[in-house]
Amino acid sequence: MAFENLSERLQKALRSLTGKGKISEEDINKASREIRLALLEADVNFKVVKDFIKQIKKDALGKEVQESLNPGQQIIKIVDEELTKMMGEESVSLNKSPHIPTIIMMVGLQGTGKTTTVGKLANYLMKKDKARPLLIAGDIYRPAAIDQLKQIGDNLNVPVYSELDNKDVAEIVKHGLQEADKNKNDYVLIDTAGRLEIDEQLMDELKRVTEVAHPDNTLLVVDAMTGQAATKVAEGFNADLDLTGIILTKLDGDTRGGAALSIRAVTGLPIIFTGQGEKLTDLDSFYPDRMASRILGMGDMLTLIEKAQQDYDTKEAEKMAEKMRENTFDFNDFVDQMEQVQKLGPIDQLIKMIPGMANNPALKNIQIPDNEIDHIKAIVYSMTPEERENPDILNPSRRRRIAAGSGMPIVQVNRMIKQFKQSKEMMQKMTSGNMKGLENLPGM
Ligand code: GDP
């Protein structure tokens, strides 16, 4: 998970301060030293670290902390606020053009995730704004990139503009924009070529595309795993192009977090989105305050809720609620619900977004098998249609047959049926507004 090491070390440094009635200058110096080392090891820019520590020390020694009832917690609050500031304080959204289309140009080095991110962003805009985007394949030197974009377009059912024999990218983009005008697309996303390092030819080409396209957003895609090198790349691109923001990819594999923490402070450019996986849904808006809370192990409930809203089919959810109220929720619905949850992502990652769970030692090595839901599905599919609709008729002999049919042990079948009944009972209470008795249910 992103920031794992940093998160653990910062929390350890801060734990030594909590619960103390009074905090001495020595305590603060000691904690600051540990925080400093933790940040440097996370590959945060040293100048950023220096300013950060200076500010923390100043605030921690201030009157407000020293006179507070719980100085340790007050210091955690300060660290949380300073981390938030380091990452930009406010969340920044995409620029939107007053007339269609809004043009988004994606730039960056090769392999950082530009093409994938074009797809993720198109998917995000379609869900959030009901957008009708057009994608332009401007990475013409890598034939595979055009195919990759076309594949993404097919998956999303979004048109992709490409010209296989044309070597003039600016011209391709110009034609692509004409196509978007004709089709009244409201967003145009331009994928561009990357190199292994910044060179003049790449920059010239990107500048020419900029002159043709006048993008509302020029987004630099950087790979979080490259740490501080990412900030150098950002400075390089920003010197030649008017970047409007950063998309930080591969945060899922970045246990250090240096790029996320330094890039805003060093370049002044806001991180707008983060990529947290290879799937088209693995793109999140970036909120500095939520990220800071996550680093300090305070969870990230808001992101979780947003994810649920975005990926969860609300019509489907309303239909389910109706079934609960009418008490007609059956095993078919149960499987549908499971599939909705599955769409949100691996369950162990979701759990870690809940406050207090991220660094809970008991959950450190938790592995919730992805196939758990598949097992449940196998059990349900081994039921007859009648059984799926009337769970009450599932007597022992029927259960044995289902176990044999699904290849699952009978205890697992029994457990699943029990869980189904419990969830049904709980959800019915919730939808009917009667919360009494919920406290007796597991997990409440
Ligand atoms: P491009 O050369 O910049 O267009 O990069 P691609 O879009 O082809 O991506 C390069 C590789 O990075 C692919 O294997 C992607 O699946 C992977 N990738 C992109 N974004 C992410 C991300 O946020 N997390 C992870 N784990 N992989 C990513």
Automatic annotation (TrEMBL):
Residues 100-302 form the AAA+ ATPase domain. It comes from the Bacteria. Its main location: cytoplasm. It catalyses: GTP + H2O = GDP + phosphate + H(+). Residues 2-87 form the Signal recognition particle SRP54 helical bundle domain. The gene is ffh. Composed of three domains: the N-terminal N domain, which is responsible for interactions with the ribosome, the central G domain, which binds GTP, and the C-terminal M domain, which binds the RNA and the signal sequence of the RNC. GTP binds at residues 108-115, 191-195, 249-252. Its EC number is 3.6.5.4. Signal peptide: none annotated. This is Signal recognition particle protein. Part of the signal recognition particle protein translocation system, which is composed of SRP and FtsY. Belongs to the GTP-binding SRP family. SRP54 subfamily. Involved in targeting and insertion of nascent membrane proteins into the cytoplasmic membrane. Binds to the hydrophobic signal sequence of the ribosome-nascent chain (RNC) as it emerges from the ribosomes. The SRP-RNC complex is then targeted to the cytoplasmic membrane where it interacts with the SRP receptor FtsY. It is found in: Cytoplasm. Residues 101-297 form the SRP54-type proteins GTP-binding domain. Keywords: Cytoplasm, GTP-binding, Hydrolase, Nucleotide-binding, Ribonucleoprotein, RNA-binding, Signal recognition particle. It comes from Lactobacillus colini. Transmembrane segments: none annotated.
